[in-house]
Design goal:
Elements: E1 3-9, H1 14-29, H2 31-35, E2 39-45, H3 58-75, H4 83-86, H5 94-104, H6 109-122, H7 130-139, H8 144-156, H9 159-169, E3 177-182, E4 185-189, H10 196-211
Length: 212
């Protein structure tokens, strides 16, 4: 029986950015199981904040910048704080989620995810803006015109909202979240931001239990 490890994320979630090195290490540690098709990894979009053209209130800006500083302090994660000085942030992550969904159709979801993170956290660009997302699409090899057309289609048909609803139905309400699906049993896997080995150990435990 093939098990599925669901990774629920939002490309503009700062804790997901902090988790990135550990998530990468975890996938490498599970590579043999993935190669044997004992395990598949299924990304799932979580959607932190719906579409908005309203500038982010100063209180929220200060709160989010403080979160970046906390993550940097606890995990050593790099952030470019110029974002808070030189952009007009909005509380709107659905566009970035749609971009990842467009890229999924081209088997480039994780590449888009990383491109958005780099633009946001390292280059102080605003992924709430369609132009920034289109630049990310071109960076990973997608046609700009085709990307924009797909973004409009996904928005018109509410496809991101549909996936977000599925994530909430599974109880994946925080980001990042991990859950292991074995048959019809869904097991939440606690996140360890600094070490992949405890996370791997839990996954291996449940997989071996299922094989017994």
């Amino acid at each position: 029986m093939t098990a599925t490890l669901i990774y629920c994320y939002d490309p503009m979630c700062s804790w997901c950015w902090g988790f990135r090195p550990t998530w990468t290490a975890l996938q490498k540690a599970l590579a043999k199981r993935i190669d044997r098709e004992d395990l598949t990894i299924q990304p799932m979009l979580g959607g932190l904040a719906p579409d908005s053209d309203v500038p982010m209130p100063m209180e929220m800006r200060q709160k989010l910048e403080a979160t970046w500083q906390r993550i940097a302090s606890e995990l050593g994660t790099e952030f470019n704080y110029d974002f808070w000085r030189h952009t007009e942030p909005r509380r709107s992550t659905y566009p970035a989620n749609r971009a990842c969904l467009v890229a999924r159709d081209e088997n480039l979801e994780m590449e888009m995810y990383h491109a958005i993170q780099k633009a946001y956290y390292l280059e102080a660009k605003n992924p709430s803006d369609l132009d920034v997302l289109a630049d990310c699409a071109e960076h990973i090899g997608l046609s700009r015109a085709g990307f924009l057309k797909s973004m409009d289609y996904i928005k018109q048909h509410g496809l991101v909202e549909e996936e977000i609803e599925n994530a909430r139905h599974l109880g994946l309400n925080s980001f990042p979240s991990l859950a292991l699906l074995i048959g019809e049993k869904l097991i939440n896997i606690p996140i360890n931001y600094q070490d992949h080995k405890p996370v791997q150990a839990q996954i291996e435990h449940y997989l071996k239990e299922a094989d017994a």
